[in-house]
């Protein structure tokens, strides 16, 4: 049924008989994905037409985005002076460095939520592209592989996509390294991290990941949408390091304070 709807929208768009406004009234993921591919991209923040960024962001909104401030060199926690935070000093994580594009604030938080809970994959493409620009600007070295933080198979079936992989797709297009989606697996379904304390999040993630690489790379970038308490990336990076990866960096769209 979704396939038929998608074909219909493609034909209408091809014939010039459909507008973005009209299609947006139908909250169907398949329709939205076709729409995003075929129709001109307005700014995804303010809705203005003729966005200057190829993935949908006008220059005015781009200047007003909550770009990341100097933070901890290990986990990117906002920290004056860009030193290492107390938690990373007391309990060093398995990853070497974290690069984020934004603070987790409006309107970036809205786009992240639309990506995760409404399936707006074009928002993931925009966020990933902006993150790539940040990585290039900071001169971050290119890894051998990009590894999206995985969802548990049951959660993936429920959601239909992995938001971290959507960000990783944009990074691959912009930067070149291949995605290794099967290298890291989530083998234990965990409770929602929302509302849990930092120690609770860590307990929740014990034994959650498994690394399946046959030829272990020396350097990978672990990609996620948002770093909150860093519990997820700590657990995932530790799993990769135990499997023999020499260096793990974290790349994320945003960092919560």
Work out the radius of gyration. Answer: 19 Å
Oligomer state equals single chain
In CATH, the architecture is 3-Layer(aba) Sandwich
> How many E strands?
7
Q: Percentage of helical residues?
A: 40-55%
- Strand arrangement within the widest β-sheet reads 1-7-6-2-3
The biggest sheet amounts to: 5 strands, parallel
Name of the level-1 CATH class? Alpha Beta
- In round numbers, the mean pLDDT is 81
Sequence stretches where pLDDT stays below 50 over 5 or more residues: 1-27
Class inferred from helices and paired strands = alpha/beta
How does the overall form come out from the CA principal axes?
globular
The number of helical runs is: 11
Percent of sequence in beta strands:
5-15%
Helix and strand sequence: HHHHHEHHEHHEEHEEHE
Number of domains: 1
User: Would you tell me which CATH topology applies?
Assistant: Rossmann fold
User: Termini distance?
Assistant: 43 Å
């Amino acid at each position: 049924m979704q396939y038929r709807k998608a074909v219909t929208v493609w034909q209408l768009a091809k014939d010039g008989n459909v507008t973005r406004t009209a299609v947006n009234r139908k909250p169907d993921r398949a329709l939205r994905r076709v729409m995003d591919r075929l129709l001109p991209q307005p700014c995804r923040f303010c809705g203005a037409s003729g966005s200057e960024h190829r993935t949908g962001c006008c220059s005015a909104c781009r200047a007003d985005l909550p770009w990341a401030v100097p933070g901890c060199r290990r986990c990117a926690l906002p920290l004056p002076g860009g030193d290492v935070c107390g938690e990373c000093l007391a309990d060093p994580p398995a990853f070497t460095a974290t690069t984020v594009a934004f603070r987790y604030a409006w309107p970036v938080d809205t786009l992240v939520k639309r990506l995760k809970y409404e399936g707006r994959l074009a928002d993931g493409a925009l966020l990933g592209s902006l993150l790539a620009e940040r990585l290039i600007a900071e001169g971050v070295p290119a890894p051998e592989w990009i590894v999206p933080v995985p969802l548990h198979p049951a959660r993936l079936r429920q959601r239909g996509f992995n938001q971290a992989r959507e960000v990783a797709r944009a990074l691959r297009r912009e930067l070149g390294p291949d995605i290794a989606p099967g290298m890291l697996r989530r083998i234990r379904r965990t409770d929602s991290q929302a509302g849990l304390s930092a120690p609770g999040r860590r307990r929740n993630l014990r034994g959650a990941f498994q690394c399946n690489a046959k030829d272990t790379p020396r350097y990978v970038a672990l990609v996620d949408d948002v770093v909150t308490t860093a519990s997820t990336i700590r657990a995932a990076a530790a799993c990769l390091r135990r499997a023999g990866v020499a260096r793990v960096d974290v790349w994320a769209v945003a960092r919560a304070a």
